[in-house]
Amino acid sequence: MSSKFQDIKTPEQFADIAPYRGNDFKEAMKRLVKDPGFEHAVRYVMPDVDYPLFVQSLLQVKDQNEFQTVIMGRFLEMLAASTTNGISLDGEDNCKPGKSYTFMSNHRDIVLDPSFLNLCFIRSGMPVTQIAIGNNLLIYDWISDLVKVNRSFIVKRDVKVVKALEAAKQLSAYIHYTLLQLHESVWIAQREGRAKDSNDVTQESLIKMLALAGEAPNLKDKLLEINLMPVSISYEFDPNDYLKAREFLLKRRDPEFKKTQRDDLFSMETGLLSNKGRVHFRVCPCINDELMRFESDDRAAILRHTCELIDKSIHCGYRIYPCNYIAFDEINGTDRFASHYTADDEQSFNNYLEQQLDRVDVDDITADERTFMRRMMLTMYANPLTNQLAASEC
User: Fold this and answer.
1) Which of 108, 121, 221, 314 lies at a 20 to 30 A Cα distance from 232?
2) Which residues contact 208 (CB under 8 A, 6 or more apart)?
3) What is 2-237+275-319's CATH topology?
């Protein structure tokens, strides 16, 4: 797969969004190791690194497959060991050997959702995926180079209205090209941006985008040819929970509040380096069989049904942790799930929430505002269970 990927030249229509291959990969790697910003980031994440030796190892990397599986694989194993209590995967038997999929998941962490999924695939001896990443995160040139040597393709966001359809058609065509001609899988989140309250719902406009391109004659068949496979991601603890609570507070104070690029960069750093507890991925069955059984030819109904199939799969696939049960019971004023946690679990989670709230760097927070943020954090942790219960046929 590696040599084939390198030998195929990227069609010109995808050149600005596709991952680097061949000479482009090697030139990007040379730029990357010379960039002070990249060096600073490497030393920040790996304080004990021998940077000159690290650079030498990067320049010896032959291609993207080696970079993604060896270099990033080792880094992610180190990160998993230092910031999680274990990463697990099930449902991988739903993936048929030799078949390419569009893995679509809920979105918790800006960087690590697809990275940890690929780590699970590396451990299982499965092919890694290409990764969709928004250009709003490519704050510096070196970040753009880094993600494109790591087999990521670019989703153009915040484009002018007249360019939005053109960008969507290009992205859709690239995804179909990757699956049907390169025979590689892709990962994409079920919505633009993360669900701040962990209420994971598929964005219909995303499904529309996926069906803009393709060789099939109609909407349903265009979706069938990309083999949509939902993936549930369950983090025991969200390192960015207090930052999301902060954003809820600032929007409560000022409905026009918007995050800055600096906020996004800090969220990436926090997600990378902070504790996540246990992390679990559930690869759900491809939705093709159920989608084929849907008899309506109405475009709106097909889009809606596709979203419903993805949402139900993701909601049913969550791994529920004690903190989710505790948050659900507290926010609903019940002891329905008290058998799923102990008094120590409850005390530990309450201490965690208070410690996270103490990290919110907003001036003059009132007692009412702190209570509001705490409730928003409880909602984040309760919603996976709330949605799983609503998908009652799991």
Assistant:
1) 221
2) 168, 303
3) Glycerol-3-phosphate (1)-acyltransferase (3.40.1130)
Its sign, for the CA torsion 111, 112, 114, 115, is positive
Give per-residue pLDDT as tens, 53-110. Answer: 999 999 999 998 899 999 999 999 999 999 999 999 999 999 999 999 999 999 998 8
Please give the DSSP secondary-structure letter assigned to residue 215: S
Q: In which region does residue 89 sit, left (phi positive, over 0), alpha (psi from -120 to 50) or beta (all else)? A: beta
- Secondary structure of 14-39 in the HEC alphabet? HCCCCCCCHHHHHHHHHHHHHCHHHH
Tokens of 17: 């969004």
Q: How far is CA 168 from CA 85, 136, 171, 217, 267, in A?
A: 38, 15, 5, 19, 26
Query: What is the spatial distance between Cα 192 and Cα 120, in angstroms, rounded to a whole number?
Result: 24
Q: How far apart are the first and last CA of the chain?
A: 36
Sheet holding 279-283, edge to edge: 87-90, 279-283, 228-235, 102-105, 186-189, 130-134, 152-155
Q: Is 353 exposed, middle or buried (0-12, 13-18, 19+ CB in 10 A)?
A: buried
Residue type, 300: A
